């Protein structure tokens, strides 16, 4: 994985970041050359410390390296995120919200309000068909 605005991490960037995070613990330091060997399959038995450091760096579960099912799940998640970026996650989310029934919306609105509050967003969402403090009349208007 790498940031969307750039290409893959270089061996030097990965090694430098992991070595800096090791805070002087030599057992967790890793060289640019060793990263290259791992990527090319010339080294196939990294230490647990190196596997953990690599998982932390790339933001994947530590089992990514040892559990084929976990690796496949991460690859599927990445593919889904890429697809969502292409479609536009906002449109996908809006379509999902539009398909919710009243009970689901009653559950979702407080969650969205808490998220908005945590992010400092002004304004509060109101459940469908109600104004703040109004009794439920059963009407269904769009968000």
TrEMBL record:
Region Disordered, residue ranges: 119-143
InterPro entries: Cro/C1-type_HTH, Lambda_DNA-bd_dom_sf
UniProt biased composition (Basic residues): 119-129
GO MF term set: DNA binding
Keywords, comma-separated and alphabetical: Plasmid
Organism domain of life: Bacteria
Domain HTH cro/C1-type: 30-65
Listed name of the protein: HTH cro/C1-type domain-containing protein
